[in-house]
Amino acid sequence: MLINTDASLKVCEIFTSIQGESSYAGVPCAFVRLTGCNLRCRYCDTVYAYSGGYELTIAEIIVEVQKSGIKLVEITGGEPLLQENSASLIDALIAEGNTVLIETNGSISLEVLGKRTDNPVTVIMDIKTPASGMSAHNDFLNFDLLLPHDEIKFVLSDENDYVWAVDLIKTYELSQKCRILFSAETSFLSHETLASWIIRDALPVRLNVQLHKYIFTGDMRGR
Questions:
Q1: Is 104 helix (H, G, I), strand (E, B) or coil?
Q2: What CA–CA distance (Å, rounded) separates 106 from 174?
Q3: Can you say how many angstroms the Cα of residue 65 is from the centroid of all Cα atoms in its chain?
């Protein structure tokens, strides 16, 4: 496969940290955060990624990632699928022997990633709940494009979000499609309360606690 490594993307930041969420939580990870997002969630913790950044070619991004010596790489944002060369970046990172994750907000069709049976990238799709203010932008057609190693994440702010998410899981049989992650928006909902609901209802989901925010304190940029 020929990859145009001269193609460029607008990058917000490249950094290394501990993977704080997903089934890879606790593992050292190199992050490529791309600039730009089409949504404005009420609880967004990366507002700084909405704009700005700098242009880098795929080749330059690869060099920066290689400097870390870490082979788990997450492409995030913002919303990385807004940039047309994000799929090529994934292909290039995989060609370099990396395990690649991409976190997307669920509003853009996964078809932009091409034929995914030939591409082992793990999609982490953040489904927007009612309390986010962005639930109308979810593209539920993406559920049919998920593979078993992919993950769906729900960030929950209250019991209404929880009930909504559980209903969605049942309606679309999501637990049969891929792994499910529940996170608490801790300004409004405690981990203890969310965990008690998950246990009570015997849900087939993983509780996310944003591990990086407990390890590092202060400014979360580059964390």
A1: strand
A2: 14
A3: 18
Integer Cα distance of 32 and 14 in angstroms? 5
Q: What is the DSSP string of 17-43?
A: EE--SSTTTTSEEEEEEES--S---TT
Whole-angstrom distance, CA of residue 168 vs CA of residue 102: 22
91 vs 96: CA distance, rounded Å:
9
Partners of 151 in the beta sheet? 124, 179
The token pair that represents 140 in the structure block: 């539920």
Both tokens assigned to 138: 């979810």
Whether the predicted pLDDT of 47 surpasses 90: yes
pLDDT more than 70, % of the chain: 92
3-state helix, strand, coil in the chain (%, to 5): 35, 25, 40
223 in Cβ contact with 210 (< 8 Å) = no
In tens, the pLDDT along 75-133 reads 999 999 999 999 999 999 999 999 999 999 999 999 999 877 766 899 999 999 999 99
Is the separation of the CB atoms in 205 and 162 below 8 Å? no
Q: What is the mean pLDDT of the chain?
A: 93
23-44 pLDDT tens trace: 899 999 999 999 999 999 999 9
Nearest to 212 by CA among 4, 64, 31, 10: 31
Amino acid at 102: I
